[in-house]
Each structure stands twice: as structure tokens, then as C-alpha cells.
Write a structure and sequence with these properties.
The relative contact order is 0.44. By secondary structure, the protein is an all-beta fold. Strands 1, 2, 3, 4, 5, 6 and 7 form a seven-stranded antiparallel beta sheet that branches. It contains no helices and seven strands.
């Protein structure tokens, strides 16, 4: 039987500029997906989101995938490539305004 876990990483607040989500230890999982709910917009913001990996939760590197570009309200997803190792997080940059976000990670394995 597979295990499943959904965790809140950033919850219901406005974001702008650059930030990284809280790291998530997911070495047990076979797959992971970030769910980004954009609930409100101020201005005309564009988000660029890049998955980052770490062996120890301290030192980080981009996973080599193309960054996701997110615009508009609603639910958006960023899929994590397979073989992601132990710790994962999302590096985000928001330009042109602010986004009110509710950001989760869902893992199963």
C-alpha cells in the first residue's frame, strides 16, 4: 500500500519578489507535486517557480527542469521530476505585483 502526504508549505498570505518554500523531506516518496492556489492578485504578477533539490536540507541546487511560469487566479501545479533525492523545495520569483498564495506539496510512495 502506498503512503500519501499533503503538507502546507506557505499558507494564505501575499507574496512578491523572491522566496523559497520551507524545505520538505521526501526521500520516502516516489513522486511529488507542488500545488499552488493563487487566491488574489494585486497588479499583474507573473510567478516563475523552480524545483530545487538537496541531500541535506541546507545546500540547494536547481533540479535541471525548465522553470514553471504561473499567471492568473486558480490552482496551478509544478510536477517534480522523478529521482529527486531527499529534500525538495520550490524557489519562486514574483514580478509585476503580488499573489495571495496557498502552497502545498503532495507526495506518495
Amino acid at each position: 500500500m502506498k503512503m500519501f502526504n499533503d503538507s502546507h508549505l506557505e499558507v494564505k498570505k501575499f507574496f512578491s519578489g523572491s522566496f523559497c518554500t520551507h524545505p520538505y523531506e521526501a526521500g520516502w516518496a516516489d513522486e511529488a507535486i507542488f500545488f499552488i492556489m493563487v487566491e488574489k492578485l494585486e497588479g499583474d504578477p507573473t510567478m516563475t517557480a523552480q524545483v530545487q533539490l538537496s541531500q541535506d536540507g541546507v545546500h540547494w541546487a536547481d533540479d535541471g527542469s525548465t522553470p514553471s511560469v504561473i499567471r492568473g487566479l486558480g490552482q496551478h501545479i509544478v510536477k517534480v521530476q522523478p529521482n529527486f533525492g531527499n529534500y525538495i523545495r520550490l524557489a519562486v520569483n514574483i514580478e509585476g505585483g503580488e499573489m495571495f498564495l496557498n502552497l502545498h506539496i503532495a507526495c506518495k510512495g
